[in-house]
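Minutes, project check-in

Agenda point 3 was the complex the collaborators sent over. CS summarized: two entities, 357 residues total, and the question is how they sit relative to each other. Sequences were read into the notes so everyone works from the same version.
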Amino acid sequence: MAEIIVVTSGKGGVGKTTTSASLACGLAKAGKKTAVIDFDVGLRNLDLIMGCERRVVYDFVNVVHGEANLKQALIKDKRFDNLYVLAASQTRDKDALTKEGVEKVLNDIAAEGFDFIVCDSPAGIEKGAFLAMYFADRAVVVVNPEVSSVRDSDRILGLLASKTRKAENGERVQEHLLLTRYSPERVEKGDMLSIDDVQEILGLNVIGVIPESPEVLSSSNAGVPVILDDASNAGMAYMDAVARILGEDKPLRFTTVEKKGFFSKMFGG
Amino acid sequence: MGIFDFLTQRSKNTAVVAKDRLRILIEQERGMRGAPDYLPLLQRELLEVIKKYINVDIEAVKVELHKDGENELLDISVTLPEKSNATS
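CS then shared the predicted structure for the full assembly.
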């Protein structure tokens, strides 16, 4: 049985696609056969973050409409044999996806023996976001320590609890928070919400905390998901999050201010 | 860090402000969750009617939906202004 994980947030620009790409790579690296699907029809970007933008021939909408089969549209990752990307359409609009069409594609992927299907949701709470979450077993709600992101996450949590297949069957989608762009220095100064603040307000624990780090941008630039940069704090934090999704118990890292040594204090570092 | 930073930093713990605002807002929004879409409009129209007779502001009219076992209860409360503020 393939497990379907939606990466969602409500608010745009908080790191959904970065997170989808990194979680998918991390799961593949852990030996799980993984597909990652871009649900942002009309504004395709996952291909770019995954670094396979020049290999997109057929997309998700083509498969839904029967213009291509799944095998033709699934792009095999160059780094991992067990990782595949299904790109969004760049030319169609969000109405090109239907519930039945999405369900069929997810079932067909599951039938190929995949362990995980990661659904990268578009921002907002319209059709694309609704379809990305509808069939989910689990949800990773990406949140920034910032008022509008936290508020939107609460909206999304409400929708996960009511507008999903699980909810309609009287079950629950397993929900996790993933806090991104976290800056321990700013939290210490009192101008950023802390992990505890966000957990308390939303009533949910974090599955990972990704520190604000310059490598996120440089990874996007290169088309190599940041989780593959094992020297970066963000990459290591994503690895920890993947381990937790797989049931491991890992303490949080990079969530407190690093104490500077004498020399870096004196000479800047 | 400048030597006068301590003067500006003390009184501005904006994270605390953010947390308080979010806590109130989210509690309120959760209360409205699953409530019918017409509630905000109902609240506005009620306010219009009440305003014809009493000088109240938007904060004074509260429309809430409560569940009482099987029954749903539409709870409308209007806080009247103090006597001196009333115009008619």
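Noted in discussion: The longest helix of chain A spans residues 16-29.
Follow-up: revisit at the next meeting once the mutant set is ready.
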